[in-house]
Write a structure and sequence with these properties.
The chain is α+β, with helices and mostly antiparallel strands and about 160 residues long. It is built from five helices and five strands; from the N terminus they run H-H-H-H-E-E-E-H-E-E. The chain has helices at about 15, 25-35, 35-65, 75-80, 125-130, and strands spanning about 80-90, 105-110, 115-125, 135-145, 145-150. Strands 3-2-1-4-5 form a five-stranded antiparallel beta sheet. A hairpin with a 2-residue loop joins strand 4 and strand 5 (about 145-150). The longest helix has 27 residues, at about 35-65.
Amino acid sequence: MAHSSRYLHIEQPEDLMKTAPRSVKLSTILNTLKKRPISATIGFLSMLIPVVIITILIIVFSSLGNDVPSVDFDQVHSKGTSKTAQVIDIETQYNISINDVHPTIIHYTYDNNGQIITSKYRVLEERKIENLEIGDDIEIKEFEGSTIVLGLNLTILV
């Protein structure tokens, strides 16, 4: 007897959850986008513009590295050799302020075994460098290419 075919089968909610999501072919998606070109363009641009902006910002900020070389202060101070350097430029960074004091970068040259080396050192001690002028001699310590200016504390800006 086939009287079960005469009855209407009503799907229960648990039966609906067992069905797999419907797959859509790529050609169907492309045809839908062709029918609505303005919406497709706006959607594409709304995804593309942030990606372009983020990429540009990453490139710009990665190229803006720290202009003062990193120095292991303790190692240079303990193992370095004393040398005399000549100040060639003094630059105050007015775009940065720490406790209302602007850091100063001292550019100097020194002789390292017959080779003239140019280096720089960032300090935050206005009183100690207020009488320092271009052409003055300063005492530095050098170790494996890293230098520190004696009598001044290094300012590390993060």
